[in-house]
UniProtKB/TrEMBL annotation:
Region ranges (Disordered): 255-280
Keywords, comma-separated and alphabetical: Disulfide bond, Signal
Native organism: Arabidopsis lyrata subsp. lyrata
Disulfide bonds: 31-245, 78-88, 93-100, 149-234, 154-217, 162-180, 184-193, 194-204
Protein name: Thaumatin family protein
Amino acid sequence: MVEGLSLMFLLVSLLFVSRVTSRNFTIENKCDYTVWPGVSTASTVPLSTTGFELKKGEARVINAPTSWNGRFWGRSLCSTSSTGNFSCATGDCGSGKIECSGGAAPPTTLAEFSLNGPNGQDIYDVSLVDGYNLPLVVVPQRPQSGQTCITIGCVVNLTETCPSELQVMGNSSEEEPIACMNACQKFKTAEFCCTGEYSTRQKCPPSLYAKNFKNECPLAYSYVYDDATNTFTCSSSPNYVITFCPPITSNTTNNNRSSAADPPFPAQPSKETNGGTKRQRVIGMTKTLKQL
Ligand SMILES: *[C@@H]1O[C@H](CO)[C@@H](O)[C@H](O)[C@H]1NC(C)=O
Ligand SMILES: *[C@@H]1O[C@H](CO)[C@@H](O)[C@H](O)[C@H]1NC(C)=O
Ligand SMILES: *[C@@H]1O[C@H](CO)[C@@H](O)[C@H](O)[C@H]1NC(C)=O
Ligand SMILES: *[C@@H]1O[C@H](CO)[C@@H](O)[C@H](O)[C@H]1NC(C)=O
Ligand SMILES: *[C@@H]1O[C@H](CO)[C@@H](O)[C@H](O)[C@H]1NC(C)=O
Ligand SMILES: *[C@@H]1O[C@H](CO)[C@@H](O)[C@H](O)[C@H]1NC(C)=O
């Protein structure tokens, strides 16, 4: 009887544990072309994949351990050379293979996650600190669990609106821009990178370039000391959907200045009591992940 009870307890615990420890990321490609998602892990247990091909319209579910910490990005314009070396014009991870063994070469739009952090909450953001190559959104699957548990990302094509000095050109004969650098990557100055004498938020206000990114993508990090409204948290262990090239609403595509400046997503409530601490974490996360 006692043994029966403890067995039952064990089974129930196992069920409970396997339910809460299993998390899903669904990666979808709504671009008109193939995207090769890349994954880098900063925590100890990696995901089952570090990179794969996702054709137009395809989606793939990736299971994640409870406390996973890492980044997703997309690679575009990839090809395999005659010698069998795989490489991508944007987001390349330098492995020579479809699977990655490190981070992305900037400029690359990044979706960053720190699952099951303080108070069991997930922290996530979309970052343009390493520049931009593809539009992407992150959609938590239980948006009711917390006011800051919302859809975030950058839906517009920043490559199109990129200032010419920050554009990365493809090598095709049309000479089309294929990505947009962050001002820090391009100019490498302390002022744009918020290093040296500019290494605090007070001393490093947004540059015009950062303001431009912010205006186009209000729910993404435009530069390292962007305002505190870019860190999002979700409780109750939601799953996440990451969509490359999400459909753009007519409101975000028209050229009406006033409507183009409106955020494409619901406004973020800015009542964060410990926003400072959270920001430090994200900067820490960005720095840790950068070492990958
Ligand atoms: C994750 O996705 C798989 C496959 O779609 C599904 O069977 C599983 O129930 C999902 N897990 C969670 C925690 O949602
Ligand atoms: C293969 O491609 C990578 C870029 O992904 C490049 O860094 C490397 O030098 C290439 N290797 C060879 C042998 O061409
Ligand atoms: C963004 O604009 C560039 C340049 O016009 C274009 O080549 C690219 O396909 C566009 N990307 C998307 C996702 O529409
Ligand atoms: C750039 O040139 C290389 C070698 O010719 C080719 O494999 C690659 O697809 C080209 N990339 C783009 C973006 O056109
Ligand atoms: C788009 O703009 C129209 C008119 O201003 C508005 O009624 C509608 O709610 C907007 N849609 C979105 C998704 O913002
Ligand atoms: C453009 O903006 C003006 C001023 O805000 C507004 O009156 C007008 O309806 C907008 N037009 C469109 C097509 O959204």
